[in-house]
């Protein structure tokens, strides 16, 4: 998919629902050009960041009164939706092209170190606000913790932080997808042999594009799509079937192989740590044979955690372990629904109830913060 077509899709994902949108280009310190989608408002800025293989479209796909971005916009907030490096809408670089191996040589570490700070700085300048609110799902939570722990000066730039199923500690994960962690070396070797480092990207001929087209033509039944998704997430018939085609049109949105490897190696190590390059390279980079853990004690921004007992990607016990490692968790919102899974945070037909709780707590947490 060429960049112009991608930006048209991104713009249409908002305007089709009757909301105004601005697309903003943000360049990171290491040269990646990211696209932010903004629904302008007069209130405080809110930055919303997607998870692995996702994009900003996931925050609007359910439409008005159902999607987080629109609920926040209706409440008067200045809504900014991020698209991290490597997804459909952020595949530009000042020097590299997406055909270059070096373009894809990043994990979620670089997203936290460079993408988020670039977004935050840009939003603060263009909204005339000293602080912003942050909402992230899955990897969107992990990258916030990378930034706030490794670049702690950014903590003071957040009025509140809301992390839905943050993929930091994931060592109790039970999704079948984690069976692949035993074959990560083979996966990396195959990528090197084929010079293919993008996973589940969009464009003519891509496997995910073929599924979307097949579904659109009626050749791939909706129930077949959902059954395959449920195999990984756990069965929960919670998605409005009328939007499955809209979801498939943009999701998955692609990622780098190295993002998957980073999560997989953290899962095996039972740790939230920097990228594992192997003992020799680790010693060159870290002066140790194993990577150091992220210094979560540096994360002083006020955080609310949202998590579910039915999540087999980021289990409740892992989020509660994370909470014990963070110095300023102001509230834990535990969802006791046994079937509420990892993608229900995005696509459950009743997720708007959670979103309204989050939006209402933006002001409440500001009050909590001011009292501290």
Automatic annotation (TrEMBL):
One of its GO terms (biological process) is lipid catabolic process. This is Lipase. Keywords: Glycoprotein, Hydrolase, Lipid degradation, Lipid metabolism, Signal. It holds the Pfam family Abhydrolase_1. Belongs to the AB hydrolase superfamily. Lipase family. The keyword Transferase does not apply. It comes from Anopheles christyi. One of its GO terms (molecular function) is hydrolase activity, acting on ester bonds. The active site is at residues 138, 311, 342. InterPro entries: AB_hydrolase_1, AB_hydrolase_fold, Lipase_euk. Residues 45-348 form the AB hydrolase-1 domain. Signal peptide: none annotated.
